Amino acid sequence: MTSVLLTGSKDRTSPLAATLRAQSGDVVVAESRDEIAALAGGLSPGSVGAYVQLLLAPDGVRSWAAPVTERIETLALLAPVLARGAVVVMVADGPADPARDGRVVDALCLLAKAALTTGGDTAVTVNVVHEASPATITRMLPGGAPHGGTAPLADFATDRDYVDWRTDVLNLTSTSDVTYLGWLNQEGQPRVGFLRGSVVSPLPVPADPPVAWGNTGPGARALGRALLGETLGGQDFDDALVELFVKDVIDPMPPTSFELSSPEVEAWVRRHRLGQPPGSQP
Predict the structure, then answer these.
(1) Sign for the pseudo-dihedral over CA of 134, 90, 235, 183
(2) How far apart are alpha carbons 36 and 281 in whole angstroms?
C-alpha cells in the first residue's frame, strides 16, 4: 500500500516530498507527464491511500483552462490506483492558477468527482487548497502530523544518496515563519492572507461571519480563531483563549489593515501559557 502519491513539477514536489518521507516514508513522486503515465500502469489497483496533485511544468499552452483540464485528465488516469476512501488534495499555489477562483474550485471538485466515479470509486474525498506548505497539506492527509513533528533527521530517508538527502533535509528544516496581512478590497470587503517568502496566499477563514479586526465582534473572533489555529498547527484550544487573543491583539488593530508575524502570535501564546498577565500585545 502506497501512503501518498505526489505529482507535479520538481520545484513544487520537493519540499512536500521531504516532509512526507519523514512522516510515512512510503511516498511515490512523479514529476512529468511521462512519469505519471508510467505510474498509472505500474501501480496496483486500489493501492494508493492519498494523492496530492500540484501543477506540472508548463507545456507551452497558454489557455487558462489548460491546467484545469490537465488536472482532471490526470486524476481520471490515476483513479484506478486510488484506494476506496482515499484523500485527494489539489494544490493551487500559483497566482495565475485558475483554481484560485472559488467558482473554478466548485467546478473542479464536481469534475474530479465525476472522473473518480468513472474510475470506479465514489468514496474518495477531494479537496482544493491554495497554500502549498507541507504543514497545511499533511494536516489534510490520513495520518498526517498535526503538530508538525517529524522523525529524527539521522533516520530520515536513509535509502537516498547524499545529494538528494541533503536537499530534502534543507527543504524540511527551512523556516516556516509567515506574515499575516489584512486589508480592505475595492468594495470595502475585508480580505486576509499570509506572506511566505514572496508569495501571498489566502488565509483559510470561514465565510460566515466575515472576518474583521479593530473590534471584538464575531468577525474578530473568527479571525482570531483562524490565526491561532494556523499558529498552533491543529492543537486544541478553547474559546477563552480566542476571546483573550481578540481582546489583546485583534481589537487594537487599525480598522483598515494590519500586519502580524507568526513569531509575534507564537510569542503571545507562549506568554499566555506561562501565565503572564493579559493585555500586552505581541
Answers:
(1) positive
(2) 50
Q: How buried is residue 126: exposed, middle or buried, by Cβ count under 10 Å (0-12/13-18/19+)? A: buried
Nearest-angstrom CA–CA distance, 221 and 212: 8
Percentage of residues in the chain having pLDDT higher than 70: 71
Q: What is the pTM of this model?
A: 0.51
CA-nearest of 146, 149, 152, 99 to 126 is 99
pLDDT number for residue 244? 92
Query: First-to-last CA distance in the chain?
Result: 46
Residue 70: Cβ-neighbour burial (10 angstroms; 0-12, 13-18, 19+): middle
- Whether residue 171 is predicted with pLDDT greater than 60 in this model: the reply is no
Contact status, residue 258 vs residue 182, Cβ threshold 8 Å = yes
Q: What pLDDT was estimated at residue 156?
A: 47
- Alpha-carbon span 237 to 231, nearest angstrom: 11
Query: So what's the pLDDT on residue 264?
Result: 86
Structural domains in the chain, sorted by start: 4-173 (3.40.50.2300), 179-273 (no CATH)
Given the DSSP bridges, would you call strands 4-7 and 48-53 parallel, antiparallel or unpaired?
A: parallel
124 in Cβ contact with 87 (< 8 Å): yes
Q: Are 85 and 124 in contact (CB under 8 A)?
A: yes
Decide which of 58 and 44 is more confident: 44
Closest by CA position to 167, among listed 176, 155, 156: 156
Distances (CA, A) of 252 to 11, 212, 214: 40, 12, 6
- The pairing of strands 258-261 and 179-184 is antiparallel
Q: Give the Cα-Cα-Cα angle 7, 11, 17 (nearest 5 degrees).
A: 55
